[in-house]
Specification:
It contains 9 helices and 5 strands, in the order αααααβαβαββαβα. About 7% of the residues have low confidence. The protein is an alpha/beta fold. It has one domain: Vaccinia Virus protein VP39 (Rossmann fold, 3-Layer(aba) Sandwich). Helix content is 38%, strand content 16%. It is globular, with a radius of gyration of 16 Å. A 5-stranded parallel beta sheet has the order 3-2-1-4-5.
């Protein structure tokens, strides 16, 4: 991995570790200047289409307002499917997916931030969700066998990778033939200056 990639990933990891213990997210901070940034995480999630039932109890505690969409509700999950949550954070979407696939299915959440893995595991235990687990790993190197995943979801994470082609190659590798991807993320409307591309602080600022 190029040295600048390591610096970028370390910056992102540190920002999201901090987000676990602070209100709001590192990319949509409470009181910030984004169109959702002045809302608390629950209100923000409501605007993104999550129901009050989904936001209730332990699942609501797992919502830190870090997403930018609602891949779970659009992924057409079915009972018995194996789901990968790419960059699962505190486990909000993964827990919802675990409910949707039922006891015959299972979910794995992958995140590179140890604090997120700890929080997500705690939330799963509090929810009594036995069909979901969380593993510390980078999304460019998924800890999964080839052709093992029915559905991959991701919520505002892939934009944070400095090596997006590798992310998509890994997704292709782990998906079963006919598998599905449902991604919510931010997109560029114009080229980003090289100075910003190579500035670790700009990746989550």
């Amino acid at each position: 991995m190029p040295e600048q990639f390591k610096d970028i990933k370390n910056q992102v990891r540190d920002s999201y570790a901090k987000a676990v213990s602070e209100a709001g997210g590192c990319c949509l901070p409470v009181g910030g200047d984004t169109h959702l940034g002045t809302l608390d995480p629950q209100a923000q999630a409501g605007l993104l289409g999550y129901s009050q039932e989904q936001l209730g109890k332990t699942r609501g505690q797992a919502n830190l307002g870090l997403g930018c969409g609602n891949p779970v509700n659009r992924s057409d999950l079915k009972p018995g499917e194996f789901v990968l949550d790419l960059g699962s954070g505190p486990g909000f979407d993964a827990l919802l997916a675990a409910e949707m696939v039922g006891p015959e299915g299972s979910v794995i959440g992958v995140d590179m931030t140890p604090e997120m893995i700890t929080a997500a595991t705690d939330h799963a235990q509090q929810a009594g969700a036995s069909n979901v687990r969380f593993e510390l790993a980078e999304i460019e190197r998924l800890p999964l066998a080839d052709a093992s995943v029915d559905v991959a979801i991701s919520n505002c994470v892939i934009n944070l990778s400095p090596d997006k082609p590798t992310v998509y190659r890994e997704l292709y590798r782990v998906l079963k033939p006919g598998g599905r991807i449902c991604i919510s993320d931010v997109l560029l409307e114009k080229d980003v200056p090289e100075s910003l591309k190579n500035d670790p602080a700009a990746w989550c600022g």
